[in-house]
Structure formats: structure tokens, C-alpha cells
């Protein structure tokens, strides 16, 4: 079997790492890995391949992030050429980025079967880019690997029942596998004490691209930072906007660092008090780590965790209140499977795909 895996953005490297590890156990499976180039900085891309022991991609398309249509269009053009040349049995896609959608369209037009890892997530509002990407990808996938029961219900509501499998979440797999290797060195480097700092990440366009919204968020986080340290590994999009809008004064009390690799981020997360984020992946990784996340979003694809109150959604002017709220909700086990999602995914593909 020849699998054609497409990755492009940071969270996809993490997901691919564990699936690749599983694929490597079988001589009869050949994997071609294509990196679209959507994320290209060393600390957003290369470093993940290094610390997660991944093979160098077979192809790197070098299509840097730009306007959505342009980026997705260029990817479709290049992916189609390579798919024709490689003639894979199956195209493997992850999550909800523009690289995911481009891969889905290219494969579908060439009548190559698609397997979607992290199928069935749904989130309001419908017009955010990630929602468009995942809804369209699910629609044309042959195999839909759902990370939770809720994801299966979501697909069911849309009439998608064929080819749907509960696998659990590959991000939980890699979290468990890598936990013994988590890197705690940043604690000392940043003079942090256990349970005495907040970890924050933020990159969504709806939070950072308009000055009014970004200003409100930073003002509220600034209030938080007066009471407890806030560490923010800053995403390039967010950094660019802060500079563009002249908001440097609003972050002077926040500990801003460059984006860090998976092992370092998890090391910091394991010892923090809480997480503030708008990342889909990180809100869940916080939960794996037993840390509650305050999510700067109107809705989330991971509703299991907000439904039970472990994570909370927040408006931009309620971040402080939510972080300071000390209502403790007990950790719920195994919402996202048992750490064997990648194993299940590959065993299903081995059985179903010739
Ligand atoms: C993308 C995904 C999002 C995912 C996130 C993880 C889409 C629509 N969005 O959002 O779902 O949660 O990745 O980070 O696919 N940039 C750099 N260097 C890099 C990467 C990006 O400077 O290595 C800059 C880009 O030039 C661009 C901005 O950051 O200006 C945003 O990058 P982009 O890939 O468009 O979107 P993300 O916000 O990262």
C-alpha cells in the first residue's frame, strides 16, 4: 500500500509524527510525505521534524502562507502533479488547514481515496477558514477517522455514516509517547515556579487581525499578568499584528518568547496553573496535561471539554475573570481514546485499502 500524507502547518507535524511511527512498523506500506510549506520558519516547522524524529518530507512545495485562495490554489496545482506521478492508493489528511483542503480537492479530482484524520469536528461560526476546510474535506473523504463520539454524532447529523470509524485522537497518542521526553528546561530559563504561571498561545485571524479585538484581549491578559506570570510563545501572525497596530506597550508585562518546539511547550504546560489559548490542538493538550484552558473563541470543535466545564470559552473582556475563577472541575478520563488512535487508523487502512 502506498500512502500519500500531506502536512503543512505546525499541528499537522505533531499528528503525522505518530502516524508515521506506526507506518514504519510495516515493510509493506510505503509512505510519501509532502510538506506544502504553509509553515516554513525553523521554529514553526523544521524543529518539529527534529524533536519528533520524523523523516524529512519527500517533497516540500515551498508554498508559504499567503491569501487563502492563492495559497490553496497553488497547493492544488502542485499536489496534483505529484499525485499523478506517485499514484498513491490513499491520500492521508490531517485536521482543518488550507493544506488539508488542497489535498482533498487534488485527490478527489484524480479519484484517489481520501482518509481524514480528525474527521467530524464542527464549530460555529461556519465561515471561519478551519470550518470550511474540515466540512468540505469530510464530505469527500472515503475514510473518516473520528477522535471522539461527538465527532461521529456530528457526521451522522450531516448524513455521513459510511466509512466513519472511532479511533480516538492521535494527539493523545503522541502526548503519551513523548511524555517521558518532555523538556522542562524553559522553567529555569524563564525563572518559573510550578503552578505559578499561565501558558498562553494565540493566532486565530478573528482574534488578532482587527485592532479593536486584539486590543481588548491584550488589555485583559495584561490584567492577568499583574497577578500571575503569563508566558506567550508568539505566533508569527500575532507578532506581525502587534507591531502593525503599535500594541507593544500592552505586552510589556507578558513574557514573550519565540515559538517553541513540542517537547518544550509540553514541558511548560505540565507545570503551569492554567492555559489561555485559541488553538484547537493546544486546548486539548492542556487537558491531557490536566490543566484547564480558557479559550478565546465563540465556540470550539472540542465541545466535550467545554460541555463538562473543564475548559471554558471566553469573550475577550472576560479572560481575567475566567482565569481567576478557581472552580475546579475533575479530570475526565479517556474522552479521546486510549492512546492507540494511530494503530487503529493504520490497521483499518491495511484491511480496507488494497
Ligand atoms: C494555520 C491554520 C490553523 C492552525 C494554525 C497552526 C489555516 C487556514 N489555518 O493558521 O488552522 O491552527 O496554522 O499554527 O490553514 N507565518 C510565518 N512563518 C511561519 C508560518 C506562518 O511568518 O512559519 C506567517 C504567515 O506568513 C502568515 C501568518 O503567519 O502571514 C499566518 O500563517 P497561516 O498559515 O496563514 O495561518 P495560521 O494562522 O498559522
Mind explaining what this structure looks like?
This protein has 354 residues and is an alpha/beta fold. It is 44% helix and 15% strand. The protein has a 7-stranded parallel sheet, with helices on both faces. The longest helix is centred in the first third of the chain and has 19 residues, at 68-86. The protein starts with a strand and ends with a helix. The model has no long low-confidence stretch (mean pLDDT 97).
Mean pLDDT: 97
**Strand element count:** 13
Treating each run of at least 4 consecutive H or I residues as one helix, how many helices?
16
Cα-atom Rg, whole angstroms?
20 Å
Helix content: 40-55%
Q: What order do the SSEs take from the amino end to the carboxyl end, as H and E?
A: EHEHEHEHEHEHEHHEHHEHEHEHEHEHH
Hetero ligands: uridine-diphosphate-N-acetylglucosamine
- Give the N-terminus to C-terminus distance in angstroms: 6 Å
Q: Spans of 5+ residues with little confidence (pLDDT < 50)? A: none
Output the strand order for the largest sheet.
3-2-1-4-5-6-7
Structural class label: alpha/beta
Q: What is the 3D form?
A: globular
Strand content: 5-15%
Largest sheet: 7 strands, parallel
Describe the protein's topology.
Blueprint: E1 2-7, H1 10-23, E2 30-35, H2 46-51, E3 59-60, H3 68-86, E4 90-94, H4 98-109, E5 113-117, H5 129-139, E6 143-146, H6 149-157, E7 164-166, H7 170-178, H8 185-189, E8 197-201, H9 205-208, H10 211-227, E9 229-233, H11 236-245, E10 255-257, H12 262-270, E11 274-277, H13 280-288, E12 293-295, H14 303-307, E13 312-313, H15 319-324, H16 341-352
Parallel strand pairs: 1-2, 1-4, 2-3, 4-5, 5-6, 6-7, 8-9, 8-11, 9-10, 11-12, 12-13
Helix pairs in contact: 1-7, 1-16, 3-4, 4-5
Bound molecules: uridine-diphosphate-N-acetylglucosamine.
Amino acid at each position: 500500500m502506498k500512502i500519500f500524507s500531506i502536512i503543512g502547518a505546525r499541528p499537522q507535524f505533531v499528528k503525522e509524527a505518530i502516524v508515521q511511527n506506526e507506518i514504519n512498523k510495516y515493510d509493506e506500506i510505503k509512505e510519501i510525505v509532502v510538506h506544502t510549506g504553509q509553515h516554513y520558519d525553523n521554529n514553526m516547522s523544521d524543529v518539529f521534524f527534529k524533536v519528533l524524529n520524523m523523516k524529512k518530507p519527500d517533497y516540500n512545495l515551498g508554498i508559504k502562507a499567503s491569501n487563502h485562495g492563492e495559497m490553496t490554489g497553488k497547493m492544488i496545482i502542485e499536489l496534483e502533479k505529484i499525485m499523478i506521478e506517485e499514484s498513491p492508493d490513499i491520500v492521508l489528511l490531517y485536521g482543518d488547514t488550507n493544506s488539508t483542503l488542497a489535498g482533498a480537492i487534488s485527490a478527489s479530482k484524480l479519484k484517489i481515496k481520501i482518509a481524514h484524520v480528525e474527521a467530524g469536528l464542527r464549530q460555529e461560526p461556519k465561515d471561519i477558514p478551519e470550518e470550511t476546510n474540515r466540512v468540505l474535506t469530510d464530505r469527500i473523504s472515503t475514510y473518516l477517522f473520528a477522535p471522539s463520539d461527538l465527532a461521529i454524532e456530528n457526521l451522522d447529523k450531516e448524513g455521513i455514516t459510511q466509512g466513519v470509524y472511532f479511533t480516538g485522537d492521535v494527539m493523545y497518542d503522541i502526548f503519551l509517547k513523548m511524555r517521558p521526553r518532555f523538556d522542562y528546561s524553559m522553567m529555569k530559563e524563564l525563572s518559573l515556579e510550578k503552578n505559578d504561571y499561565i501558558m498562553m498561545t494565540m493566532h486565530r485571524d478573528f482574534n488578532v487581525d482587527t485592532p479593536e479585538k486584539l486590543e481588548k484581549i491584550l488589555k485583559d491578559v495584561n490584567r492577568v499578568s499583574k497577578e500571575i506570570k503569563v508566558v506567550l510563545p508568539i505566533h508569527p501572525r500575532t507578532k506581525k499584528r502587534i507591531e502593525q497596530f503599535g500594541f507593544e506597550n500592552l505586552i510589556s508585562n507578558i513574557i514573550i518568547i519565540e515559538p517553541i518546539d513540542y517537547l518544550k511547550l509540553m514541558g511548560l504546560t505540565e507545570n503551569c496553573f492554567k492555559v489561555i489559548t485559541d488553538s484547537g490542538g493546544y486546548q486539548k493538550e492542556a487537558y491531557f496535561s490536566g490543566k484547564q484552558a480558557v479559550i478565546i473563541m465563540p465556540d470550539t470543535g472540542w465541545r466535550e471539554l467545554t460541555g463538562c466545564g473543564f475548559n471554558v470559552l471566553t469573550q475577550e473582556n472576560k479572560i481575567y475573570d475566567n482565569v481567576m475563577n478557581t472552580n475546579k472541575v475533575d479530570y475526565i478520563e479517556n474522552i479521546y481514546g486510549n492512546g492507540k488512535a494511530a494503530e487503529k487508523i493504520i490497521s483499518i487502512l491495511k484491511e480496507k485499502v488494497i
